[in-house]
Amino acid sequence: MDDLVLSQKPQEEDRLGALTDDILLSILGSVDLATAARTSALSTRWRSLPWLLPELNLHVRDFLPVPCPDYPLAAALRIFFYSKIPAQHINQAMASLTRAARSFLRTKHSRTVTKMSLEIYLVGNYSHDIGPLVRDAIDNGTVRELDLTIADDKDFRCKRADMLQKARVVDGFFSTYPNVLPCLTRLHLYNLRFAKGDMLHRTLFDCCKQLQHLSLDHCDAGDGSVWQIDAPSSGLRVLELRYSYLKRLEVLCLPKLELLRWEVWLHNETPLHFGSVPCLKELFLLCGADIDHPGFSLSQLLDGATDIHTLTLNFQGEKLWIQPESRQLRAAFSKLKKLSIQGIYVEFDLLWTINLLEAAPTVEIFGVE
């Protein structure tokens, strides 16, 4: 029996060795970078493979002593998990991430990274370590596209003064390493209060020419502020807001925006105003039941959005009046395929439903709670 096991080992090793580098790199690309780096100890052939990955995923959560829940699995709650991470763990993780970045970005191997996904904390002096590494990698052509998450260790109850300070730190990072902005394809920020709305606009739209996906958690320009986006040259396709003190978001011009998702706003009036959004296909609005909304009309909310095919309104049990005037909604609902509405108070259920269906003759999926 032992002889049989021993005789099978070379064959198994040969099977693995017969795989091409492309296949092995595909396997390594499916695990976190820390795990991929450890495989370099397997054999002489594997020694250089992790340094040839076409995409780098440097996420601070992968270097934490205690694992952090993955964002896709806890999107709405992850900001709370960040608040439970001890400061010493964050420092340890950033130190390890910086060493890994230095190893992978200053490698002797000739390489081009098509995309790098980077998640960092801007704490201590680590920005002065990681910043030059990213800057140089962009300058020498190693990194061409960058997905950046600037994480935070506090939840949405972060004090206003802390939010202003964090915004200054983030703005300082981008000012020190300005070549980062044109490479950004995706950006995720937490707990920032920009002193001026134009600073937010300048950073995110005037400088980020490749930006396609923007997520802002608990970010604004002040309580009750109005954020106007007028960016005709922007390529932004996805905009996500979570727990914002914005009074209203006015999307005056985002010609390539396809998805807008806003989870929890804290003012009791119509939260959105659309100007030119010719590509907007999906709109998702979610708000909790602890805010006294007087209600608003769907036609007022959707005025200017004429190409929506998926609309989700989820108010989690909130008794919210929404007036679905069929005639005024026909422009917005002319291409609607999926409509989901929850937590809305309706006095005349049948008439309300008829008005919606008349306004949306092409709807295929219709759900109301």
UniProtKB/TrEMBL annotation:
Domain At1g61320/AtMIF1 LRR residues, every copy: 180-366
Gene3D superfamilies attached to this UniProt entry: Ribonuclease Inhibitor
InterPro entries the UniProt entry points to: F-box-like_dom_sf, LRR_At1g61320_AtMIF1, LRR_dom_sf
Any one Pfam family match given in the protein's UniProt record, by short name: LRR_At1g61320_AtMIF1
UniProt-recorded name of the protein: At1g61320/AtMIF1 LRR domain-containing protein
Species for this entry: Aegilops tauschii subsp. strangulata
